[in-house]
TrEMBL record:
Pfam families: Aminotran_3. Keywords: Aminotransferase, Pyridoxal phosphate, Transferase. CDD domains: OAT_like (cd00610). The keyword Transferase applies. Transmembrane segments: none annotated. Its cofactor is pyridoxal 5'-phosphate. InterPro entries: Aminotrans_3, Aminotrans_3_PPA_site, PyrdxlP-dep_Trfase, PyrdxlP-dep_Trfase_major, PyrdxlP-dep_Trfase_small. GO terms for molecular function: adenosylmethionine-8-amino-7-oxononanoate transaminase activity; pyridoxal phosphate binding. The keyword Transferase applies. This is Aminotransferase.
């Protein structure tokens, strides 16, 4: 083992796959084996692995100005151009953008932005943030407290008490329904639970609710029809801001420009990372509406400097990578492409796997999807310790496909959005062989 502490890895684990190079939707390991990158790295390499235009934009910028900080209003052309570009794209009124380096730090920025804003307007008591069970928002101390996955909370004394995090139901009908509840009844019940919670806590103490329009790490949950409409009516009624974490769903992933557009969400705050630069250079963006910015200008004398910023906030090469990525999305109509190929992928997935004995639910939208692996198709019973997820992940790799087992026994798919229909066919054929083989494996081990 190299002296590396690998992220999100058991300390007893040994090194797994060593990747060497990539081309289009494919990656190659150091033994020359070729894989389809079915998860776009970690839901991020939207343009695939050999986009020379983005690489050239980065190197050109490095040659010109490899670094400039942006503290105290110091600036450079790429950061100003990128903020203008995002302002024109995002569904936030008169948007202003703070840049960081990762999805986690972008969410931390908003936690602090909310504190700063409510202090600035004289409402310091409005400080609680609602998150959802199974949500994933990163791993830094604040973002990690918003995340609800057990491994990200256990052993870190998270959530940090000072953050006043409230947790509400995950909007997953398949695993969350009670008895014979319909989807509509499930939705009404969990919205009702949230209203009770808001009233019990006092709405005047709640700043915002963070949602992933469609979740990723918790198993690709697409909430029921009508959920977001009712959620927003409830939050607006109680003066709670809507904060969309678009770190995975931003930029074409769902077949729309943003997850908010696909799911009918009108957000106040947004966070982006990953596909913002197709992951060729780390960059994140925390977006706020103009009215919030204006309110902070007016109150700045009382609360003082916004004392938050990273050395690499708006790194020139990162901004250049993002600007080129956004230009390519637009020029090549990649969001429309993702909508078309995504609809095809969803239809094929349902056709192939709906009746598979190991698959309880096929879900997803656009180019993000998951299969829920179950030990009993009728009851939806799951496997202990992610046994099926691990078996499927291993079988996929043996068949030249990289996917990710998430939330125990769900298999997530999230290929680069440049993927073609023929490549989708190839990916799903490999997935079918792998799921069949995992099914055999689990039977051999008497787990079925
Ligand atoms: N939010 C969401 C919705 C994510 O999926 C992720 C990462 N998977 C993050 C935040 C954190 O991003 P990062 O790993 O870049 O810190």
């Amino acid at each position: 083992m190299a002296p590396v502490i690998y992220p999100t890895t058991n300390f007893t684990a040994t090194e797994q796959l060593c990747l060497d190079r990539g081309e289009g939707i494919y990656v190659y390991d150091t033994d020359g084996n070729k894989y389809i990158e079915g998860l776009a790295g970690l839901w991020c390499t939207s343009l695939g692995y050999s986009n020379t235009e983005v690489m050239d934009a980065i190197t050109e910028q490095l040659h010109k100005l490899p670094f400039s900080h942006t503290f105290g209003g110091k600036t450079h052309a790429p950061i100003m151009q990128l903020a203008q570009k995002l302002k024109a794209m995002v569904p936030v009124e008169d948007a202003y953008v703070f840049f960081g380096n990762s999805g986690s730090d972008a969410n931390d920025t908003h936690v602090k932005m909310l504190r700063y804003y409510f202090n600035a307007i004289g409402k310091p008591e409005k400080r609680k943030i609602i998150t959802r069970e199974r949500g994933y928002h990163g791993v830094t101390v604040a973002a990690g407290s918003l995340t609800s996955l057990p491994a990200n909370l256990a052993h870190f004394d998270a959530p940090l008490e000072a953050l006043h995090i409230l947790r509400s139901d995950a909007p997953h009908y398949y695993t969350g329904r009670q008895g014979n509840e319909t989807e509509a009844q499930f939705t009404d019940r969990i919205i009702g639970n949230l209203e009770q919670q808001i009233l019990a806590e006092d709405p005047d103490t709640i700043a915002a609710m963070i949602v992933e329009p469609v979740t990723g790490a918790s198993g690709v949950i697409v909430p029921p029809e009508g959920y977001y409409e009712k959620l927003q009516v409830l939050l607006r009624k109680h003066g709670i801001l809507v904060w969309a974490d678009e770190v995975i769903t931003g930029f074409g992933r769902t077949g729309a420009d943003f997850g908010c557009t696909a799911m009918g969400i009108k957000p106040d705050l947004m966070t982006f990372a990953k596909q913002l630069s197709s992951a060729y250079f780390p960059i994140s963006a925390s977006v706020i509406p103009g009215w919030m910015y204006e309110a902070m200008i007016n109150q700045t004398n009382e609360v003082g400097v916004f004392g938050h910023g990273y050395t690499y906030s708006g790194h020139p090469a990162a901004c250049a990578a993002a600007l080129k990525t956004l230009e390519i999305y637009e020029r090549d109509n990649l969001f429309e492409h993702a909508a078309e190929v995504g609809a095809y992928m969803q239809a094929q997935l349902r056709g192939i796997f709906t009746d598979h004995p190991l698959v309880g639910e096929v879900r997803g939208i656009g180019l993000i999807a998951a299969l829920e692996l179950v030990s009993n198709k009728t009851t939806g019973a799951s496997f202990d310790k992610g046994a099926a997820g691990a078996a499927a992940q291993k079988a996929c790799e043996a068949n030249g496909l990289i996917i990710r087992a998430v939330a125990g026994n769900a298999v997530a798919l999230c290929p680069p959005i440049i993927i073609t229909k023929d490549e989708v066919d190839d990916m799903l054929a490999r997935l079918k062989t792998a799921i069949d083989s995992a099914y055999g494996d689990l039977k051999d081990k008497d787990l079925l």
